[in-house]
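Tokens in:
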């Protein structure tokens, strides 16, 4: 399904007067509105291929109908999202769920939808068809060198596939760990993992990055081999300049100060990028900003300050991607909501009076510093985000237009009610 630009224009026409009135008021409140709008236009958030279908819980999965049955249909769905918000101009593939057989046609289809290929993701947390060895007891950490070699080769194959598509980064998330005390020698598991990562790192093209994710628990509940940002940092520091830590907002113990983690990694040039989501108990993969919008703002506040201090390009120097699992929502509506929440947090962070905040910090004026941050957070910047979409040719209200056009109903009509997205 391809959206007719005339329908987007008609939708915007009906909302234009109210939008302009809000924009005038917002611009009167935020002096740097034009600069913020341009940064929002440039900012793109990659959509993961696996988030286009209904995820589920440990006890069941309730498909929503019209899910993408192939990589081609996943690209079409991301193209729909990008047409609606013009902020989702890349897709992140998960191999082997999205193994490509015809690179030329896949690249042509992506170009048709104005999409690029973001980081490619390897998978050694599941046993794959025709694989000689099982990852039941780990992959890159495994005590069996043959299993480690198989996992390393899979990652190298993923790099090669990504290079064919124009990607320039590999994301590695490991399920490796142990469920019971005594099951694993921690030191040897670390050494095996490092050795495996070094082999993968050596296969990276010159212009590529390796993003190493971490997770404190699940599927192993006693230990995970890359359990937190410190362990990821330890690995990537040893690997080299092209290796970075990837921060997933759900992969932390309760009450972790994620914004401080982000600041330190950025300061040391070891922050690779993000998997955006939200959580209450653990790796819940909820809609970004649904539970903790102030935390999301504080994270972006540290990002803006730290990236500006290093002279970095906000749009291109880090990897920006959503990681979500939709249990009861329409996945595409959820993704539209997540992109909106991320853009709002970014715009709020851009509006912070940095000079005034620095003065307050240097004078130990705690109240003033809090007021400056909370004033930016409490300022309604939605008109700036909408204006960025409008200038890019997208919809002023993407979710409303998605529903008005009956996109999900159309997809069910094309694909069927009982379809299951590949990889889920």
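Residues out:
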């Amino acid at each position: 399904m391809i959206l007719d630009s005339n329908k987007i224009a008609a939708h915007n026409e009906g909302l234009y007067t109210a939008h302009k009135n809000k924009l005038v008021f917002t611009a009167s409140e935020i002096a740097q509105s034009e600069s913020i709008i341009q940064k929002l236009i440039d900012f793109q958030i990659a959509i993961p291929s696996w988030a286009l279908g209904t995820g589920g819980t440990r006890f069941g999965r309730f498909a929503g109908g019209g899910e993408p049955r192939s990589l081609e249909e996943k690209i079409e769905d991301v193209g729909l999202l990008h047409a609606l918000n013009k902020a989702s101009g890349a897709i992140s593939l998960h191999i082997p769920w999205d193994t490509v057989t015809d690179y030329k046609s896949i690249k042509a289809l992506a170009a048709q939808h104005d999409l690029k290929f973001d980081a490619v993701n390897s998978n050694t947390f599941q046993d794959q068809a025709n694989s000689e060895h099982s990852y039941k007891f780990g992959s890159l950490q495994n005590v069996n060198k043959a299993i480690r070699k198989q996992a390393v080769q899979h990652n190298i194959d993923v790099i090669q596939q990504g290079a064919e598509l124009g990607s320039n980064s590999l994301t590695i998330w490991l399920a490796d760990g142990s469920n019971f005390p005594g099951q694993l020698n921690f030191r040897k598991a670390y050494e095996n993992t490092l050795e495996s990562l070094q082999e993968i790192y050596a296969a990276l093209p010159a212009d590529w990055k390796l993003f190493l994710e971490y997770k404190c628990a699940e599927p192993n509940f006693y230990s995970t081999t890359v359990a937190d940002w410190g362990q990821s940092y330890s690995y990537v520091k040893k690997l080299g300049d092209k290796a970075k830590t990837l921060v997933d907002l759900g992969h932390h113990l309760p009450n972790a100060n994620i914004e401080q983690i982000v600041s330190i990694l950025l300061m040391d040039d070891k922050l690779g990028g993000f998997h955006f989501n939200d959580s209450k108990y653990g790796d819940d993969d909820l809609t970004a900003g649904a539970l903790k919008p102030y935390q999301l703002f504080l994270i972006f506040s540290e990002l803006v300050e730290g990236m500006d201090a290093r002279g970095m390009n906000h749009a291109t120097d880090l990897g920006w991607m959503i990681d979500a699992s939709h249990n009861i929502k329409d996945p595409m509506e959820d993704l539209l909501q997540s992109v909106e929440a991320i853009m709002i947090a970014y715009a709020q962070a851009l509006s912070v009076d940095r000079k005034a905040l620095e003065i307050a910090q240097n004078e130990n004026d705690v109240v003033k510093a809090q007021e400056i941050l909370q004033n930016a957070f409490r300022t309604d910047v939605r008109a700036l985000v909408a204006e960025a979409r409008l200038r890019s040719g997208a919809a002023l209200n993407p979710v409303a237009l998605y529903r008005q056009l009956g996109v999900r109903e159309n997809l069910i009509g094309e694909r069927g009610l009982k379809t299951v997205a590949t990889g889920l």
